[in-house]
Amino acid sequence: ALRRRHELRALTRRELLLTVLAGVALAGHFAPWVSSLQLTTVAAATALVTTQLLWVIAADAFRGVAVERSVALGSVLAVAGVLVVSGVDVSVSWRAVTGDLLAIAGGAFAAAYLLLGQRVRTRLSTTAYTAACYGTCATVLLVACLASGTALGGYPAHDWVLIAGVTICAQFLGHSLLNHLLAVMSPLVISMLLLLEVPAAALLAAVWLGQAPAWGVYAGLALILAGLAVVQVTRVQPAAETTGR
Question: From CA 117, how far away is CA 98, in angstroms rounded?
Answer without folding.
Answer: 29
